[in-house]
Automatic annotation (TrEMBL):
It comes from the Eukaryota. InterPro entries: CLAMP. It comes from Phainopepla nitens (Phainopepla). The lineage of its organism: Eukaryota, Metazoa, Chordata, Craniata, Vertebrata. This is CBCO1 protein. The gene is Cabcoco1.
Length: 129
């Protein structure tokens, strides 16, 4: 279902698509294990996408991406709070856990993801076998 939602095609021959599917699926299951509400789950997935988009489309450095993530987390809390009357979208503990997750899943491997998105490489021809 995640494959269809993300519109990822040719996963059998595209390592980039398979890696992105794994990244989002792992994030989704981590958030489910954290018992996030639907609103929190949506906000978390937005943060995953936001950080990855900053890297892949905007070619942000690690430092710039971290600064943008900090701003985005503050905005999500403010926007959602105003609409729903909540104090914050994420508790302090949840926000710390999210940051830890992003550091472990994306930021520690930033150079690898940079290579994935804009490293020059030959496309190997893979057979269906």
């Amino acid at each position: 279902k995640m494959e269809l939602f993300l519109n990822l095609t040719q996963l059998k021959t595209s390592s980039k698509g398979a890696i992105l599917l794994d990244y989002y699926t792992a994030g989704f299951w981590w958030a489910k294990e954290m018992n996030f509400s639907l609103i929190q789950l949506s906000g978390f997935m937005d943060l995953l996408n936001f950080a990855l988009e900053n890297l892949s489309r905007k070619h942000m450095t690690l430092g710039d991406n971290l600064k943008e993530l900090e701003r985005a987390m503050a905005e999500i809390g403010e926007t959602e709070s105003e609409e729903r009357g909540d104090l914050n979208l994420f508790s302090i503990e949840q926000a710390k856990a999210i940051i830890d997750y992003l550091v472990t899943s994306l930021f520690k491997h930033y150079k690898t993801y940079e290579y994935l998105f804009y490293g020059r490489r030959e496309e190997p021809v893979l057979s269906s076998e």
